[in-house]
Input
Amino acid sequence: MQIAFVLYPGITALDLIGPYEVLRSLPGAEVRFVSNERGPVTADSEVLTLMSTHSYAETPRPDILLVPGSATNSMGILEDKELIDWVVEAHRTTTWTTSVCSGALVLAKAGILNGLPATTHWMVQEGLRHFGAEPRPDERIVRSGRIVTAAGVSAGIDLGLWLVGEIAGRERAEATQLIIEYDPRPPYDTGHVSKASDATIEGARAVFLDMAGIHD
Amino acid sequence: MQIAFVLYPGITALDLIGPYEVLRSLPGAEVRFVSNERGPVTADSEVLTLMSTHSYAETPRPDILLVPGSATNSMGILEDKELIDWVVEAHRTTTWTTSVCSGALVLAKAGILNGLPATTHWMVQEGLRHFGAEPRPDERIVRSGRIVTAAGVSAGIDLGLWLVGEIAGRERAEATQLIIEYDPRPPYDTGHVSKASDATIEGARAVFLDMAGIHD
Output
C-alpha cells in the first residue's frame, strides 16, 4: 500500500506529520513524500526543511494520497499546474484521496470536490465554496465516498486514525491510538470557532497574519 | 527567545513537530533544529528526513530545549555523550527544559530528573525509575520547576500549548489552539493504557516491536 504525502514549499508540517505518524505503521505501508522533484522542501516556518523522497512523476498510482495545507502558500499552490494535474490523474486510481487543512483547496481546484461536502481550516471554508464544494465547518473529518477531508492542522491525526480503522479494522486503529498515546488533554478549550470568544478569534487571525508574513 | 528542538537519528517526528507547530508562533521565537552537526537526520520510519539547522556546539544557551523520543533509538541515544553533555550544559541556563515521549530518558540520563516526578511514553515508564526519576504514568504533562516532561508522541501538542500559556499568557495560548484547530475528536478512545483493553495493549506492543524492527 503506497501512501503519498504531498510536500510543497510552505506546507504546515503538522498537517503532514500527524497523519504520517499514524499511517506509517499500517501493515505493508510504503510511505513516500512527493513533490515536483526529489529534494529539500521548506515548510511555512521557513526554518523546517523536509526531504521529498519521490517526484510526482515517479508516483503515478498511490493507494492513498494526502495533501496538507499551508499558512503561507495555500493560495499560491493552486497555481502549481504540475501538482494539480498530478492530483487529477492520481485520484483516478487511489483507494483514498485525502486532505488536511487548506490542502482541501487543492482537491477542490482539481475538481474532485465538485458538489461534495468537505471541510478545511476554519479561516478558508469559503474557499471551498468558491471551487464548488459544500463547506461543513462543524465537522472534524468529512467523507464523500473515497475522498476524506479534515479540518485545520491537528485534525490530520483524527483523519489518520479514522483511515486506519477503515483500512485495517478497529482493533488495529485502537492499538495505533495507544502507540501515539493520543489521549488529548488540551489545557484550554478553544480549538473550534464555536468554542472560542470573539477576542480569541480575532487574536488567532492576528497571529496567523503575522505567521503568514502579512502585516496591516 | 531561542527554541532548540533536538534532532537525532531515529526520532519520532510527531514528538517534535507537534510542539514545533505550537511554539513557532510565539512572539520573538527563533526556532532551531539542533543535532551533532548540521545536515539531514532521518526519523524512525527510515523514510522521513528532516534538516538540522544548527549543531549543539552552535547552540550553547537555548531559552527552551525540547528533546523528542524515538521508536527505534530511545536507548541508543543515551550513549550519545555529545548530546548528553550538551543537555547538561544547556540546561544550566534554559528557561524551560522539556521532553516528549522517551525524550525524558535523555533528561534523566543527564541527571536532570534525579528524584523528580516525570512522565514519558507508557512503555518506558520504568526507564525513568532506572535513572532516578519518579514516574507519573497517569499525567499528560509533569512540571517540576522549569522542567516539563510530556507523555507519548501526541502529548507534545498539549505540552506546547501549556508552555505558550506560561510564556505568553492564556489569551495567546487560546488563539494558538484555534490556529491549529486543536479540537480533538479521536474516533476511538484508547489513547491511555487505563482506557485500553489488554488486547489493545498487547496489539500496540506488537505493532510497536514491528515498527522498531524487533521480531520475535
About this structure: Chain B has a mean pLDDT of 96. The first strand of chain B starts at residue 2 and ends at 6. Chain B touches chain A through 69 residues (CB under 8 Å).
